[in-house]
Amino acid sequence: MNHHVILGAGPAGVIAAETIRQHAPNDRITLIGDEVESPYSRMAIPYLLMGNIDEHGTYLRKGANHFVRLNVAQVNARALSVDGQAKTIQLSNGSVLQFDKLLIATGSRPVRPPIPGLDSPQVHPCWTLEDARAIMVLAKPGARVVQMGAGFIGCIIMEALASRGVTLSVVEMGDRMVPRMMGPVAGNMIRDWCELKGVKVFTGAKVEAIVPTDESVTVRLSTGQKLPADLVISATGVKPCIDFLQSSGVTCLQGVLTDEHMQTSIAGIYAAGDCAEAFDKVSGTTIVSAIQPNAAEQARIAALNMVGQTASLKGVTQINVLDTLGLISTSFGNWQGVPGGDQVALTAKGRHLSLQFKDDVLVGCNSVGWTDHVGVMRGLVEGQVHLGPWKEKLKNDPTQLMKAYLACAQGQGAWTGAADTRRR
Predict the structure, then answer these.
(1) Could you count the other beta carbons within 10 Å of the beta carbon of residue 14?
(2) Kind and range of the H or E element at 300?
(3) What's the Cα-to-Cα distance from 379 to each of 181, 289, 372, 393, rounded to whole Å?
(4) 319, part of any domain
């Protein structure tokens, strides 16, 4: 009987525990999470802030005895170190756990920029349920809120804050909004949309200091502007939680490096989710792609291999579908293009579409306000569909994506689940 230890009680950890139990009914499973709450989805926190759900609605599994029924032992602690050779884990509660198989599913955590005043009681990330509770106390109607960061996560948080009736300003150090997902045209279209909706947007600006003033703070920008705030949200990005692996023997680059079976450099140790760096067939490199569909599939693959079944990851999904105050934008694959590739872009009537090609394959795309063909764009990019003569047709008219998909993808047996989705 093997002992499977899972570090991390987010979506990847929960799915792995369930998959292991399904295929190994008698094995021992320990699920370790460093938050006191029942395992929950961080992606549900904005809906909690909006008032669409309560805290119970964020839980990944609603049944009170779900993990008890699965005979999964839950431990509230944090991993301090892992010994890959001895197969032991030192936990923050003082105990040492022995494992036969280990899954590292510790996710990511917010980056803390070195800004004076970041520890002020008015400043919060928006990452945990504890953060959400603090934000809801301060984000009252009319409250002055400054958000640092206008990336993917920042835009989702921004929508939740706007729904609470606050006066919102967003500061982004990049030259446009969502700079890691959108090119200049698309990013600036999102900025213009936000300003039209009453959000003040400061791009190309850094927060230099947060200065306490009685019950509020003043946010000082690199541009010289000073913004009074009752609440400051820090949404300046995240990074994988892998510091505890420094002396483990497990190879880490940006994340925990894995093979196609989600196994790390040490046999019997696997990784999945936001902390894992997996091979992506579209880009031809290993990447950390921190979205929930990846976490779920990587966890399933890892769990099957942990119980002795051979399963391989087909690829890493590079998909972002973002709703910013009602404006839908997307990025797929190598949206910036590839060396030696070519591209076409169309901007008209408040909408933008950019297609990137390598030879006759669509390797990436961007869109703003273009909801018609979201699933088709994903299908063409992930399916690595050879377009043949349809490449030139798309370069002449990028709006012909659906016809190109129907003509090329299905005949090649490519990914055909091209249903539009707005879920990250």
Answers:
(1) 27
(2) helix 292-306
(3) 18, 18, 13, 18
(4) no
Same domain for 268 and 257: yes
Task: Calculate the alpha carbon distances from 50 to 128, 132, 359 in Å.
Answer: 15, 11, 45
Q: CB within 8 A of 40, min separation 6: which ones?
A: 55, 58, 59, 60, 129
Q: Say if residue 54 is in the same domain as residue 195.
A: no
Domain shared by 203 and 302, yes or no? no
- Specify whether 251 is located in the same domain as 287: yes
What is the model's pLDDT at position 280?
76
Flag whether 315 is in a domain.
no
Contact 21, 66 (CB under 8 A): no
Are residues 9 and 96 part of one domain?
yes
pLDDT tens for each residue of 62-80: 998 999 999 999 999 999 9
Tokens standing for residue 412: 């090649």
Q: What is the CATH number of the domain that holds 285?
A: 3.50.50.60
Estimate the crossing angle of helix 374-382 against helix 401-408, to 10 degrees.
Answer: 40
Tokens of 58: 């964020």
pLDDT of 411 = 62
